[in-house]
Amino acid sequence: MRPGDRRLAKRLEAGLLRFSRNERSLTGIRASAKRGVLLEQLVESVRRVKFIAVLRTRDLSERRTDPDDELFDPLRAAILHQRRGDIEEAFWLVLLSVHFGRNARGGWRYAREVYGRLGDGNRWDWARTSADPQAFRAWLNAHLVNLKREGTPGGFGNHRKYQSLDAYSPTGTGAAVESYVNWVGPPRTHQELMTQALQRAGGNGRKAFDDLYRSMHTVASFGRMARFDYLTMLGKLHLAPIRPGSAYLQGSSGPLQGARLLFGRKVSGLELDRWLIQLDKELKVGMQVLEDALCNWQKSPNKFKPFRG
Q1: To 5 degrees, how large is the angle CA 124–CA 128–CA 130?
Q2: SS3 state of residue 67
Q3: 103 pairs with which residues across the strands?
Q4: 304 CB contacts (<8 Å, ≥6 apart)?
Q5: Contact status, residue 62 vs residue 74, Cβ threshold 8 Å
Q6: Using a CB cutoff of 8 Å and minimum separation of 24, what contacts does 71-74 make?
Q7: Whole-number pLDDT of residue 240
């Protein structure tokens, strides 16, 4: 660990032990080896979350916005569009980044080739897609074979590995895109959607996050993890002043198992969510960090292994 990471780990360990002693027993980290691995996962998760903040301060190449370029990156492209005031396109690029994910071998190929329409000179940008999602589905159906071609690394990211490119199945990419457009509800803009959620929440960013998270169940194939990833990324990019107030364990797999391992209790996700909120008052790392770290920790609680989403 770097010196700063070691200081953070020391602070977090003190907080975990204090919480376990004074608030609620954390039986899963009584063994120093397991505690050490969880601390490493927490530190790694903090760094992942902070990386987006760092990225927002960097000089970024305009090549990142060009889907005809191998350097295309939807998250960096979102930052560049945000900087020049094209906020609606920034939201859309975040959606594409979460829907397709970054494949371990193929990188952003699916997002790049769909967004760039396989290099035909046009774009499935927000303006075009939201105006005619049926045309998007027809294009996707006509180009499925090319998009899924053998011999070229591709595929969805790890968090989306069971997702389909299919244009017309109820849970495929076509349905995801059209239902997302319906969720935003043009001519309403993304910004108006966020503003309305904040108004309903009385300006509370956590309550607005919850409002949006629950309403987003209408987006096809966007289950608990995709909604959480999308909305937390909006917050990290400062596209909306929202943040999760809980880990949303209900309906999860890895994070739920991690929380049960930590507390040594097989109780409901709702109860564990309440306990994690209490724990974060001590650790002060945020619910996304806890959710991510616990998910990765439960995969290998005795030996640290880095995991990427």
Answers
A1: 105
A2: coil
A3: 107
A4: 36, 37, 40, 41
A5: no
A6: 72/108, 72/111, 72/112, 72/115, 72/116, 73/108, 74/100, 74/108, 74/111, 74/112, 74/115
A7: 98
Q: Is the peptide bond before 187 cis (omega within 30 degrees of 0)?
A: yes
CB atoms within 10 A of CB 229: 21
Q: b/e string for 252-290 if b means 16 or more Cβ within 10 A?
A: bebbbbbbbbbbebeeebeebbebbeebbebbebbbbbb
> In 3-state terms, the chain is what percent helix, strand and coil (to 5)?
65, 0, 35
Distance of alpha carbon 306 from alpha carbon 308, whole angstroms:
7
User: Which amino acid is residue 302, in one-letter code?
Assistant: N
Token duo for residue 210: 């919850």
Give me 201's structure tokens: 């929440």
Report the pLDDT value the prediction gives residue 306, as an integer from 0 to 100: 86
Beta partners for residue 107, in sequence order:
103
pLDDT of residue 116: 98
Residue stretches of the chain with pLDDT short of 70: 1, 308-309
**pLDDT tens-digit readout, 65-76:** 999 999 999 999
Note the pLDDT of residue 4: 80
3-state secondary structure of 103: strand
Per-residue model confidence as pLDDT tens digits over 232-261: 999 999 999 999 999 999 889 899 999 999
Which tokens in the block code for residue 46? 């903090």
* 232 in Cβ contact with 244 (< 8 Å): yes
- Residue 107, SS3 per DSSP: strand
| Whole-model pTM over 0.90 | yes
